[in-house]
Specification:
One of its GO terms (cellular component) is membrane. By secondary structure, this protein is mostly helical. It is built from 18 helices and 4 strands. The chain is globular. The structure holds protoporphyrin IX containing FE.
Length: 468
């Protein structure tokens, strides 16, 4: 309610400014590029939904083409709907287009200094290098034992309590990331690390699902109003989130520093980097430590829901396509036998399991939109009819050549493009693969039954914010 009052008052003040600015801009930059019809002044503002934007871009992409040019109250938004357009702009001309747009909703929390929202420049490169050093394909091998141990715990819990499979999968994902980021093993649902982050995610979700983000997008100057101003509840909320982030990154980092001092630290992203800093000849300053602890915490945030979304899609696909599940299970039985669970050394020998994982990522990409200077509609790209035959169908066989039909490519676009490509992709793929193969090798995924004994087939329905 307070936000609505605020909206009404700022609308009055800004309308005149917008009209003047729009009139000036319209003279110099007419919107002639393909896109849906726009309203005067506000352009496509009301046509772009707050949620499920990826689906809207996909629909428009089919109608208006690969590159959409949208007008949001005079600001141009370019949406790339094909791999070719995204590669051309973000890989071949990456230097120019790798910046993030400035978001008042991020700036209000002071998070624009963190890598994921940072400007494309020196600080971004230094943070990005931290990820590249510790999350390369080779380096991720160090964490395989921990992924396997956590996958075993997950399937044991699923067998004991199948209706809570989503919670067991979430715990698997969170455990792998805390192990990799901080060397910490989550031992129970009451674990400090889990509790802190759950509270933070809940608080963040509240802000993300309110109209505040939309409001700040339209009127960025609102980020500067004081906390006491009527209707400025979002500023207090943002302040709380900012403090929670600071508390957690410091807490996690201090725990690892203590473990390093007592010689109890296990190899992890944070421990390995801190050790390198301690042994380097360079003078270690606060900036180095701050960059490092922010990166470790960011890794936790970026890696959790995304990998979980992938696993949830896998379960849905297996429920809807039982014959695919059987075919993947038969492959596992044939290659390693019925009594053994494959590990990553068997990955190449299990091409159909690989295809199931790739198809899971393609069918519903966990991150449906990439967001640099140009928005990449990743789900439009993985559903491009020019590349994928019947793209809405979950069909892992598409990756093998068949009579009169060449093999289709793995959907590498699900990791984004160019200099902003996901730095956690090797870890994410190996976690996803390990979880999928453990589930396939140990349980059968079947629909629950209703009171009449009939299968309950879930609808294919996603809520889309930043991740699925
Ligand atoms: C299935 C799981 C995952 C998927 C599909 C995924 C996908 C993506 C995509 C598409 C982007 C680019 C977004 C953009 O350009 O706006 C991205 C960025 C990022 N991802 Fe992932 N990701 C996954 C898991 C992970 C994991 C496990 C980590 C950490 C270990 C991670 C860390 C990051 C970070 C830090 C960025 C920001 C990179 C930058 O701004 O330069 N992701 N991810």
């Amino acid at each position: 309610m307070q936000e609505t009052n605020l909206l009404a008052s700022v609308l009055g003040i800004t309308l005149v400014a917008i009209l003047w600015w729009y009139a000036k801009r319209a003279r110099t930059s007419p919107y002639k590029s393909p896109g849906p019809p726009a309203l005067p002044i506000i352009g496509h503002l009301l046509s772009i939904p707050l949620h499920d934007q990826a689906e809207t871009y996909q629909k428009w992409g089919k109608r208006y083409g690969d590159v959409l040019k949208l007008n949001i109250v005079g600001k141009t938004l370019i949406v790339l709907n094909s791999e070719e357009a995204a590669t051309d702009l973000l890989e071949k001309r990456g230097q120019k287009y790798s910046d993030r747009p400035r978001l008042a909703s991020v700036e209000v929390m002071g998070w624009d200094r963190h890598m994921v929202w940072a400007k494309y420049g020196k600080e971004f490169h230094m943070s990005r290098k931290l990820f590249q050093d510790q999350l390369s394909l080779k380096q991720c091998e160090v964490f395989q034992d921990r992924q396997i141990r956590q996958a075993r715990i997950m399937v044991k819990n699923i067998v004991k309590d199948p209706t809570s499979h989503r919670i067991h999968m979430l715990r698997f994902v969170a455990s792998v990331i805390t192990e990799v980021a901080f060397g910490h093993e989550i031992s129970s649902p009451e674990d400090n690390y889990l509790q802190f982050v759950e509270k933070f995610t809940e608080d963040l979700g509240q802000l993300a699902s309110s109209r505040t983000i939309e409001l700040l997008g339209l009127f960025p100057f609102l980020k500067n109003i004081p906390q006491w101003f009527p209707g400025a509840g979002f500023k207090r909320h943002a302040n709380l989130l900012s403090k929670e982030w600071e508390f957690m990154e410091t807490y996690f980092c201090e725990e690892v520093q203590k473990e390093l001092k007592t010689g109890n630290a296990r190899p992890s992203f944070l421990a390995n980097h801190l050790e390198t800093l301690m042994h380097s000849e360079k003078h270690v300053n606060d900036e180095d430590i701050n960059r490092l602890k922010a990166a470790a915490f960011l890794m936790y945030l970026a890696g959790n829901e995304t990998t979980w979304a992938g696993l949830s899609t896998f379960i849905l696909a297996m429920l809807l396509r039982p014959h695919v599940q059987r075919k993947a299970q038969d492959e596992i039985d044939k290659v390693v036998g019925k009594r053994v669970i494959p590990d990553l050394s068997d990955r190449e020998a299990l091409p159909f399991v690989e295809a199931v994982m790739q198809e899971t990522l393609r069918w519903f990409p966990p991150v449906p939109l990439g967001n640099s200077q140009r928005i990449q509609a990743l789900s439009s790209i993985t559903h491009d009819e020019g590349v994928y035959h019947n793209p809405d169908e979950f069909y892992p066989e598409r990756y093998f050549s068949q009579a009169l039909r060449p093999a289709e490519p793995y959907p590498k676009s699900v990791w984004g493009f160019g200099r902003r490509i996901c730095p956690g992709r090797h870890l994410a793929e190996s976690s996803l693969w390990t979880a999928i193969v453990h589930i396939l090798a140990t349980v059968n995924i079947r629909p629950a039954k209703d009171s009449m004994g009939e299968d309950i087939i879930p609808p294919v329905q996603y809520t889309t914010h930043l991740t699925r």
